[in-house]
Design a protein that fits this description.
Number of helices: 14
Largest sheet: 2 strands, antiparallel
Radius of gyration: 18 Å
Number of strands: 2
Bound molecules: 3-methylbut-3-enyl trihydrogen diphosphate, magnesium ion
Strand order of the largest sheet: 1-2
Order of helices and strands: HHHHEEHHHHHHHHHH
Amino acid sequence: MFQEVLAAHADRVEACLTGLLDEQDDTQLTRAIRYAVLSGGKRLRAFLVLEGAHLYGVRPQQADRVAAAVECIHAYSLVHDDLPAMDDDDLRRGKPTLHVKWDEATAILAGDALQTLAFEILASPRSAADPTIRLRLISSLAEAAGARGMVEGQMQDIAAETATTPLTLEQITTLQANKTGKLFTWSATAGPVMGGSNTDLMQAYAQAIGLAFQIADDILDVEGDASKAGKRLQKDSQAGKATFVSLLGVDGARRKAAELVEQACDCLEPFGGTGDNLRHLARFIIDRDM
Ligand code: IPE
Ligand code: IPE
Ligand code: MG
Ligand code: MG
Ligand code: MG
């Protein structure tokens, strides 16, 4: 049942992205961009935008565009994450990574273009009629994705591979909050931002599931099935990376993730039944095999 809701939300954002990309010419660059952003994925960040928007009474058409914007940032981050200078991966979402299908230059440039496309989408009045809200979405996304957010998290993650002493739990938590958590938080708070409401509840919810999500990603890396995950696994231990699993063990990491999910669900109490899709999402995040 939840899988159906997830698939329906993914279809919505995919249709919106397809519409946005249809406006572009057919070149190697635009083919690569479409390959990166229309090639599946769970669309969890989009899901958070759509559900958050629903909770705060935002029009679905507006939410679709905002969801598309964050999926562009996420797709760019994956294209760059897979590059030889970073994780050097050849499989993503069950298909060859972009630099394998084309070449590194195309992958770098398609990533760059996806990043600017995200901001172009948000800058349109169709994403938010009120210019103050639009500006808030744009500046908060820049912050979440940039040198105080995802990019910093990626840098900390790469640095951790060569650190002489393994990272502490506190350092890993900070790293993951940057690498994954901030984009999750942006996505979940976009609804209340668009609705002109307070973001505290959604922020607390997203911080908890963001961390749980990354713990689950680390567990999948150890015991997942690559054919289901659609990406190469056992990469973290090979790279000698300290992760939640290397510090807490698989059982400890699983317990920690389950605690975080309970914490996330507690944040949804005020929404009653309307928060059910977000409760299911929180559980899905730690139970998934993909
Ligand atoms: C993978 O993210 C990258 C991480 C932040 C760990 P997802 O697992 O959300 O990737 P897709 O979008 O479903 O492919
Ligand atoms: C990637 O983290 C996170 C971002 C792209 C911001 P990982 O390197 O753990 O993601 P996977 O495991 O390759 O999907
Ligand atoms: Mg990485
Ligand atoms: Mg990676
Ligand atoms: Mg990973």
